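User: Sequence recovery, please. Input:
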């Protein structure tokens, strides 16, 4: 064996060991978290290298959260899912790809961040939109996500329903109120980003109902001053749950990496990055430190108004449920 051949073999062995030591993790996530995870991933890669000496590559897969959940159930090898509704993680738990007790695996019901629903209106708020009642008035076009395909859409629907109930409406009156709301919806977005594109790129509608965190993304992508954020008097607390996809990590041997990735979301660094993207942090210390970043708003929980997201799913969003009775697909 020549010395050159030995050197070539040694080089190949080194390259192979480098490949072996570098793991790839896939995060299946909802549409409007795209920019947050772009920043978080860079921070996690640096943190993981510093603490373990190992390199890691993070890939992302984004769509409406329910569409992502279905893709993972159908075989997409995501190591973790980072969703905006617990029903999508529950769906994966029932499919046997996420642990049944996933909500107890991480703090705060496995939700490192929360958000709420607000309104984005065109600069100067030409239609004078202030609260949910304004979205039911004739002549107002409202852009929302389809609650069948995205958590953004489910939270919008539940926020409108809960607002009516908080104002003293009966269930029948709440149904009538939400029915008026959806009569003003010309199209349903597939996910949060699709709805934002319809509103800002295709110039459809007077108001976009979306997560508070989407404001930062809109300003970055489309430029400051295109939209104004309007906080309604009452809205819903939206948890952003996370989970390890047990099926994938068992196959790929990435269980420890996946756990470390989700745990770091709760670190001060992860929580501060969340704040920069207008996501409300789980850490009360970080929230208090950044109190000026989040306007006070009367929030109600899903549990308080609907029992659970699973209960709401059965009553409102399953085929033949309340949403199907209130909205006719155009």
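Assistant: Recovered sequence (330 residues):
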């Amino acid at each position: 064996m020549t010395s050159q051949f030995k050197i070539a073999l040694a080089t190949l062995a080194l390259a192979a060991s480098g490949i072996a030591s570098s793991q790839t993790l896939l995060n299946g996530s909802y549409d409007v978290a795209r920019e947050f995870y772009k920043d978080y991933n860079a921070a996690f890669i640096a943190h993981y290298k510093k603490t373990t000496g190992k390199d890691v590559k993070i890939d992302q897969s984004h769509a409406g959260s329910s569409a992502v959940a279905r893709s993972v159930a159908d075989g997409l090898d995501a190591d973790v899912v980072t969703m905006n509704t617990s029903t999508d993680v529950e769906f994966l738990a029932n499919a046997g790809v996420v642990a049944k007790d996933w909500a107890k695996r991480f703090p705060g019901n496995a939700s490192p961040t929360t958000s709420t629903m607000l309104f984005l209106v065109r600069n100067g708020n030409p239609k004078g939109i202030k609260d949910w009642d304004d979205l039911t008035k004739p002549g107002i076009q409202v852009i929302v996500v389809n609650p069948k395909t995205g958590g953004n859409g489910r939270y919008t629907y539940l926020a409108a329903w809960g607002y009516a109930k908080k104002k003293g409406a009966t269930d029948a009156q709440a149904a009538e109120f939400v029915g008026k709301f959806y009569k003003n919806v010309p199209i349903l977005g597939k996910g949060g980003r699709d709805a934002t594109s319809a509103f800002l790129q295709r110039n459809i509608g007077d108001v976009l109902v979306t997560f508070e965190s989407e404001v930062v993304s809109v300003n970055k992508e489309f430029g400051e001053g295109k939209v104004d954020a309007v906080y309604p008097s009452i809205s819903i607390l939206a948890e952003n749950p996370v989970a390890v996809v047990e099926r994938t990590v068992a196959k790929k041997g990435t269980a420890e990496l996946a756990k470390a990735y989700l745990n770091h979301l709760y670190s001060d660094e992860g929580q501060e990055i969340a704040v920069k993207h207008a996501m409300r942090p789980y850490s009360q210390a970080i929230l208090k430190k950044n109190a000026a970043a989040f306007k006070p708003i009367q929030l109600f929980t899903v549990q308080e108004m609907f029992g659970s997201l699973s209960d709401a799913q059965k009553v409102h969003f399953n085929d033949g449920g309340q949403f199907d009775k209130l909205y006719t697909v155009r």
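Residues 3-21 form the longest helix (19 residues).
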